[in-house]
Write a structure and sequence with these properties.
This protein is α+β, with helices and mostly antiparallel strands. The protein folds into 2 domains: 112 residues, Uridine Diphospho-n-acetylenolpyruvylglucosamine Reductase, domain 2, CATH 3.30.43; 305 residues, Cytochrome P450 (Cytochrome p450, Orthogonal Bundle), CATH 1.10.630. It contains 15 helices and 10 strands.
């Protein structure tokens, strides 16, 4: 195991328990006491150094510095990403696999089409007239699952799609915690990998594609760097890596409702937004302001130096996402919710350059999430629909515990439809 030679031993005490107890607040709190924008610690016994800032983003996403192979622990792979997922690859193997995802979103047509599916499913759900109360997180997850099912060309019944929605939310909910939530997440992933592996095999056996050009077909027919098809289980993993992150947008949608409740002036601004520019800015600010991923991790590719600190090959390297999105050196009054940050950027620095809720770098060639445009499009659509929806918010616990990862308003945000 790599070890650090420099600095006092006290800095290298293991922080695993502190991370589990403090959640999103752990790393930003440590950063506030850092003199050089780094945190030196251990996680699960492994030496780790955490970085923050624009130069840290470029450093972290340079494969000459940080690699992903073997960086993600099995508990995360067995719940959130899946064994053999694109997130575990580096170099040309990663770029070839990543190209499969990028091809589905080329020219923006794929993103726009998914946004249309989301809007249609939401309106159908709200027009049902059978319920007066809705738990927004649950409803948004269901809407997003049905939307991505149709967009991806996945032939699932409505009942199976509802099960998929529940399992995807379990995968996201249980990846970062021990105990029952984690066990549910593991069972959910196994269940859905089994089901989708069967659909992959069926798609390959069909004489003609039922959904030519669909995500299902793209994954089923993809050939990796070695020229071979993905085995059905790995293909199922990657199909879930299209579906699951789309369902996870339900977290942001719930935060959007929370923002509209706390600062209701944004409802009128969204209603008046005919071109969609304010809705997009609102989506960006939701992604900046509210907690999503606390950090991302990789391994030092070789012996490195960062701000004078020796970083041995194999050490954990963390990029502080939540902290950077609230860094007062990058954002004026960072704990004020203000979509105008993204409506009329002033000066040479584009604020989007510093916005990293889903990672940074180049999505086409690096490890930045290729579905970020999907997140923004779907979230802007759902925020606009919420602004136009006639509802009231009954009394409930809307607290957002930063100690819980991932987190939400404790009530899931209940609406009473009028």
């Amino acid at each position: 195991m790599p070890s650090f030679k420099k600095s006092g031993a006290a800095q290298w005490n293991d922080s695993t328990l502190a991370l589990l107890l403090r959640g999103y607040a752990w790393l930003p709190n440590r950063m506030r006491h850092s003199m050089d924008g780094t945190v030196r610690t251990r996680l699960m016994g492994r030496p780790a150094i955490a970085l923050r800032g624009p130069d840290a983003v470029s450093f972290f996403y340079d494969e000459q510095h940080v690699v992903r192979t073997a960086a993600l622990p099995d508990p995360v792979l067995d719940t959130l990403f899946g064994q053999g997922a694109v997130h575990t690859l580096d170099g040309e193997a990663h770029r070839v696999r990543k190209a499969m995802f990028i091809s589905l979103l080329k020219d923006g047509a794929g993103v726009a089409a998914l946004g249309e599916h989301v809007t249609r499913q939401w309106r159908e759900a709200m027009a049902g007239g059978q319920r007066d109360r809705v738990v927004l997180f649950d409803e948004a997850a269901r809407v997003l699952t049905f939307a991505v099912r149709d967009w991806a060309g996945v032939p699932l019944s409505d009942a199976a799609t509802a099960d998929l929605a529940r399992d995807c939310t379990s995968m996201v909910d249980g990846f970062a915690t021990p105990g029952p939530r984690h066990l549910r997440a593991r069972r959910a992933r196994r269940r859905q990998e089994d089901a989708l592996a069967g659909l992959i095999t069926d798609a390959r056996d069909a004489p003609e594609a039922d959904s030519p050009g669909s995500a299902l077909e793209a994954v089923a027919r993809h050939r990796d760097l070695n020229g071979t098809l993905l085995d059905p289980r790995t293909a199922a993993v990657e199909l879930l890596n299209i579906i699951r992150p789309t369902v996870a947008i339900a977290l942001f949608a719930t935060f959007a409702a929370h923002a509209l409740h706390r600062w209701p002036q944004h409802r009128d601004l969204l209603r008046a937004d005919t071109g969609g520019s304010y809705a997009e800015a609102f989506a960006h600010e939701v992604r900046r302001f509210y907690p999503f991923a606390p950090f991302v991790a990789g391994l030092a590719a070789r012996d490195l130096t960062w701000h004078g600190e020796r970083m041995p090959k194999g050490a954990l390297v963390l990029l502080d996402l939540y902290g950077q999105n609230h860094d007062p050196a990058l954002w004026e009054d960072p704990y004020r919710f203000d979509p105008r940050r993204f409506t009329a950027p002033e000066g040479p620095q584009d604020p989007l350059d510093n916005l990293i809720p889903q990672g940074g770098g180049d999505p086409a060639h690096g490890h930045r999430c290729p579905g970020e445009d999907i997140t923004v499009t779907a979230l802007a659509a759902l925020a606009t629909e919420l602004a136009q929806l006639d509802y009231e918010v009954p009394g409930q616990d809307l607290g957002i515990p930063l100690s819980r990862m991932p987190t939400l308003p404790r009530s899931g945000f209940e609406l009473r439809l009028r």
